[in-house]
Amino acid sequence: MSGAMSGAVSVVVHDIGELLTNDPDVGILRDAAVVADAGRIVWVGPSASAPAADRRIDAAGRAVIPGFVDSHAHLVFAGDRAAEFSARMAGQPYDGGGIASTVTATRAASDDELRGLLAGRIAELRSQGTTTVEIKSGYGLTVADEARALRLAGEVTEETTFLGAHVVPPGVDRRAYVDLVTGPMLDACAPLARWVDVFCEPGSAHAFDGEESREVLTAGIGKGLMARVHGNQLGQGPGVRLAVELGAASVDHCTHLADADVTALADGETIATLLPAVEFSTRSPYPDARRLLDAGVDIALATDCNPGSSYSSSMPFVIALAVREMGLTPTEAVRAATAGGARALRRDDVGVVRVGARADLAVLDAPSHVHLAYRPGVPIARALDVS
Ligand code: NIG
Ligand code: FE
């Protein structure tokens, strides 16, 4: 996702009422300015002493934050599952079984149809303040269809994730499918991806158990990919500890955690990425963010935008949920949605406003980042074009 174009002109964003930098040495600046050149931040400081630039953007007292880093999304798909959502709101549980219908619709779509759908989703994200997004495959589940999803994702983001191990396709032998994912599918997809992921959920008829997940992740790591994991979404299980053991950058969902999971996360390097729009859309209990922060675990917030468990591309909605339902302060939530997402993607050039970082900014039609949670459902955030 190109949040900032490599423009030939320098741009100064001035009269920023509140600048949330996420730079620990700087914190929050008032009456600030940021200068960008060729897509990079070259100056941060008081508005009154900002250097001249080719173009001026008047923030008029608004708040500016690092653009959101949505570190977990499934954006290459066709069709929707509104009927499944309605059934869930009437009491049906979510078990991942509906993924198969998205696989059918996605396989049937042409490259151009998928490309158009993806472009629309990227525009939707940017219009809500997101400037970096990770995109997974996982609705193809054949060698050709997974590779196609990654090729399309790679046209719009550097953060591409091979999720051939999303579910076992209906009618396919489980063992044969794991062999396909770790063999020919990985061979075709590894050159197109930065990450490998698996839906680790033992006890699910559709997803993968601890040993299968280990095979998938180990094979991906062996091909040079870095690991991330869908873990502990539907119940407790080995996902979190496996992610920490294998040095995954992030384990995502973390809805059902044993004490040993929290300890492993606190002792390890793996970020816990929380996806509360999933709990909203599946009527599930929210993950206990306070318990994680109090234990010293680093967290991120992401949308998990997908047509099944969370059809929302809105980081502001996720922030509002995290504050209202999960015990985060507004500042903690915004940090988790920016710097936290960057850490979950092992990036130090996004999620922060400092010299040398990408000029990926979001502006709020509000005087403070607190309004992101305080004004739920109001479209106050948008990515700032500094090209
Ligand atoms: O992160 N948990 C597995 N995968 C997605 C849901 C995908 C779908 O339901 O289509 C998730 O929630
Ligand atoms: Fe997901």
TrEMBL record:
UniProt cross-references to Gene3D superfamilies, sorted A to Z: Metal-dependent hydrolases (3.20.20.140), Urease, subunit C, domain 1 (2.30.40.10)
Superkingdom in the source lineage: Bacteria
Residues involved in Zn(2+) binding: H72, H74, H230, D304
Domain annotation Amidohydrolase-related: ranges: 206-366
Chief localization: cytoplasm
Keywords carried by this UniProt record: Cytoplasm, Histidine metabolism, Hydrolase, Iron, Metal-binding, Zinc
Binding residues annotated for N-formimidoyl-L-glutamate, in chain numbering: Y139, N306, G308
Enzyme nomenclature, EC number: 3.5.2.7
Cellular compartment(s): Cytoplasm
Top-tier EC class: hydrolase
Record field: catalytic activity: 4-imidazolone-5-propanoate + H2O = N-formimidoyl-L-glutamate
Pathway(s): Amino-acid degradation; L-histidine degradation into L-glutamate; N-formimidoyl-L-glutamate from L-histidine: step 3/3
Cofactor note: Binds 1 zinc or iron ion per subunit.
Any GO MF annotation of the entry: iron ion binding
Family: Belongs to the metallo-dependent hydrolases superfamily. HutI family.
Name of the molecule in the record: Imidazolonepropionase
Naturally occurring in which organism (per UniProt): Nocardioides terrae
